[in-house]
Structure formats: C-alpha cells, structure tokens
Specification:
3-stranded antiparallel sheet, binds adenosine-5'-triphosphate, Transferase(Phosphotransferase), domain 1, 8-stranded antiparallel sheet, elongated, 283 residues, 36% helix, 19% strand, binds magnesium ion, alpha+beta, 13 strands
Length: 283
C-alpha cells in the first residue's frame, strides 16, 4: 500500500449528523467533553501531540496532516471516556490513539499510530480488519494510510461497562451468542485475533446492543485460530469482573461440562462441537 491512501468500501447507512465548527467548541466543563478541531488547527498544541502521541515535531505533524487530508478528514472530535493529555479520546492503547474523525457528513473512528509504537505502519492491521469484515466481524474498514486507520465508529461502551447497565438475561445472552458466533466465523477463516482471552478493551457494544470485536493489530493468519476458546475463557472462566457480572445475570456455568466442551471444540473444530459449547456457555 506504500505511502498512499487505500480506500475500502463505502459504508452504507452511515451517520449523517453534521456538527462542524470552524473554531474549537468546548462544552462547559473543566475537562472538555467534546472538542471539534478543524484540520487547519491540528498543528496547534495540545492537538498536535495527541495526533503524534506522545510528542509532536513540526515535520511529523505536517506529514500526518497531509495523510489526513488524503483520507478526507475535515476535523477531529476529541470526545470519549479515555484521555490523552487534557483531551478526551475514544481510546488509548500502546499502538494508537483513537478519536472521532469528521469526513464529509460522517463521524468515523480514526486510529492514529503512536509515534513511540513499535509498528512500522497500520497497513497490516487494515488488511486483517478487512479480512475480518469479510465475515461480518469488526468495525467496517474505510481507508488506511501509513499512520492512520479510518473505520466505522462504534458508538457505545466496552462490554464490561455495558454490563453494568444491562441486566436483562435475554439481551445479555443474545449479545454473548453474537460474540461467540463472530469468533466462530473468525476461526472458520483462520484469522486469530490474538487478544481475546484478556479482552476488556477489545469487546465493545454499540447503542443498538450490537457487539463489536476491535483491534486486529496483533491478529494473524499464521497461528492456530483460537478465538472461540479464548473468548470463552474471558467471558465464562476465571475471576474477572466480566465473568462475575455475566454469572450474576445468566447464572453459574457447570465448569466441568464447560471445560469438556471447550476441549472437544479445540480438538475438533466443527459446527456441532461449537453449538454444543454455545449451549454449555449460555443454557
Ligand atoms: N472503531 C472504533 N469505534 C469506537 N471506539 C474504538 C474503535 N476502535 C477502537 N476503539 C477504542 O479505542 C481503544 C483503543 O483501540 P485499539 O485497541 O485498537 O488500540 P491499541 O493501541 O491497539 O490498543 P492496545 O495497546 O490495548 O492493543 C479500544 O479499546 C476502544 O475503546
Ligand atoms: Mg492493539
């Protein structure tokens, strides 16, 4: 993909709310909740050092602004539950900072590669996300440049936060089934996400209660795909807050039966063993 921009398919039914300001617009809070900064102002601080996290140089921010122009980004929206310096962002990891980008009438998620990350570029991640999209998994890929990955915005919460306010057994079972089915489809195409056994940051649920698996940066098609077994471990085994919340809502699992079903699926990955495991997880 070189240094160029690579566009994926156009996202149908995208959000059309246009909220574009030519000046920064701060909500009345000590810590701004939502700040919309047009691209023409991104070289100012603290925006530049969030785009080039953790520290901007004039040449680095210039390269990055040009990449964002190629992607059609008109403004960045600093909002969300995480923070980078004094600004709110959707998420902050070791590889990237994720913010909302305004592209025409749409609000999309933009993963911006950290300057101090050990990755060459975000292009490999884009390839793997596109592959996940081919089986209906992950936020829809839109476009990539060396340092930026543009994708569908998942407007929602981390699963563990969502579980704090969603206690309806049928609704919770439905999203857990959806997560397991998505993992089955990834297993089927031999795409191993790689970080689903400790997934507190990689499972999101949007406002329509649809779950999304995010971050295909450590995914691989070379390893043995173990998405189903890894996510089962995260959701139903162990002692994490998520396990406890799920057990409280849908009841305790029979551990021995669950372990046996996991073992059977691991040994022979087929639909029958998957459905048997699904039943052990959610019955
Ligand atoms: N498409 C999206 N829509 C909304 N929020 C997102 C989206 N993609 C990522 N996020 C948020 O940003 C956070 C960081 O993203 P991501 O996990 O891709 O970054 P990372 O640098 O690879 O993180 P890590 O170091 O934990 O692997 C996620 O946990 C999630 O909260
Ligand atoms: Mg990551």
């Amino acid at each position: 993909m070189g240094g160029d921009v690579f566009f994926g398919h156009t996202l149908p039914g995208a959000e059309t709310k246009r909220l574009f300001a030519s000046r920064p617009c701060f909500e009345r809070n000590a810590m701004p909740k939502s700040t919309i900064i047009p691209l023409s102002q991104i070289k100012e601080e603290p925006y530049a050092s969030v785009v080039c996290y953790p520290r901007a140089s004039p040449s680095e921010i210039q390269v990055r602004i040009e990449e964002m122009q190629k992607l059609g980004v008109e403004a960045l929206e600093f909002s969300g539950k995480a923070s980078a310096f004094t600004l709110s962002v959707l998420g902050k990891g070791y590889v990237g900072i994720v913010v909302v980008a305004r592209v025409g009438n749409e609000r999309l998620a933009l993963k911006m590669q950290r300057v101090d990350s050990d990755r060459e570029s975000l292009e490999r991640e884009a390839e793997l996300l596109s592959k996940a999209n081919s089986v209906g998994v992950g936020p829809k890929f839109r476009a990539v440049t060396k340092h930026f990955l543009l994708m569908q915005l998942v407007n929602g919460d981390l699963l563990e936060v969502w579980l704090q306010t969603h206690k309806d057994k049928a609704v919770v079972r439905k999203i857990l089934t959806d997560i397991l089915e998505q993992c089955w489809r990834l297993d089927e195409i031999s795409l191993d996400h790689g970080e689903l056994s400790k997934a507190p940051k990689h499972l999101l649920v949007d406002g329509t209660d649809k779950p999304f698996i995010v971050d295909f940066e450590t995914a691989s098609t070379q390893r043995n795909a173990s998405n189903v077994t890894s996510v089962c471990q995260y959701l139903f085994q162990g002692n994490s807050d998520v396990c406890k919340a799920i057990a409280q809502i849908i009841g305790d699992r029979n551990r021995a039966e669950l372990v046996a079903a996991l073992r059977k699926y691991r040994k022979e990955r087929n639909r029958r063993n998957f459905e048997d495991l699904l039943q052990r997880c959610l019955e």
